[in-house]
Amino acid sequence: MEIEVKSQTDNEVVFIIRNAEVPFVNAIRRCAMVNVPKIAIENVNMIRNDSAMFNEVLAHRLGLTPLVSDIDAIEGMSLPGDEDYEESRGVMFSLEEEGPKVVYSKDLISSDSKIKPVYDTIPLVKLKEGEKLRIEAEAKVGYGKEHVKWMPTTVCAYKQYPEITFNEDMEIDYECADACPRGVLKSDKRSKKIKVLDIENCTMCKSCVRASQNQEGKSYINVGYNENDFIFKLETDGSMPPKEVLLQACNELGEKAEKFIKFSEEGGTK
Fold this sequence. Notes:
The chain is α+β, with helices and mostly antiparallel strands. It has helices at about 20-35, 55-65, 70-75, 175-180, 205-210, 240-265, and strands at about 1-10, 10-20, 40-50, 90-100, 100-105, 110, 125, 130-140, 155-165, 185-190, 195, 220-235. A four-stranded antiparallel sheet has the order 1-2-12-9. It has a four-stranded antiparallel sheet with strand order 3-8-4-6. Strands 5-7 form a two-stranded antiparallel sheet. Helix 1 (about 20-35) crosses helix 6 (about 240-265). The two termini are about 35 Å apart.
C-alpha cells in the first residue's frame, strides 16, 4: 500500500491511497468519524436566561461549539469507558453577560487555558436591553458514536481514483470536453486531442460519455475507476489537526484488529 499526500492545511488533508481495498479504506473513514476522542460541552446549568432562546436550544449550541481537543488538551482527562469517567470532573466553563449585545463563543470563560473555543466569533444568543444570561457548563471527552458534538470531522470521505480512456478507433468528439461540468477535459483542435487537465477532480458523472454517444450507443470517451486506488479527503472542525485525527483513527483500527485476532486465537469464548 502506498500513500501520497496531495494537499494539507490546518483543517484539511487530501491524500491518495494506492493498492488498498474498499473495506480497509472505509474502516479508516468510520474510525476517524466515531472513534477519535474529542472534548465537547456535555452538562449545562442554566442559572439565569432572560433571552428569547429556550434553554435546550442554547445548551445544544454550546455542545456543538468546537473546543480545542488536541493530544495535549485531552491528556490527563478521563475517557468514556474509564472506571472514573462518570465521577470525574471535566473542564468548567462560565458565562455571565447582560444585554444589549450578541453573546459569542469568545465570551465563554474556561477553567483550563488550553481548552477553549476554537473560533471566537460563533454567535450563541442575542440579548436585548436588560436581559441577563448566567451559565455554568462542563466539557468532557467523548466519541462521535455517542453524539455528533464529539465528532472531530466535518468531511470524511473517499472516492475511487478516476480512470479516463479514449476509443482511438472512433472520430474525435470535441463536444465531450465541453460537457464536463468540472473542467477536467480540454479540447485541443490544433493537436487533434482531448487533454485531461485534472483527473482527480473528476466525479465520474459521465456527462462527457453521454455527450459523445452515437446512435449505436458507443462513446468516444470512457470514464471508469481503479478499484484499488482512492482519493481520501478529511476535514476537521478545527478542534484537532487532520493529521492527528487520521493517526488516532489508524491506531484505533489497529487495536481493534489486534483484539479480533486475540479473540479468534482464544477460540472466541470471551
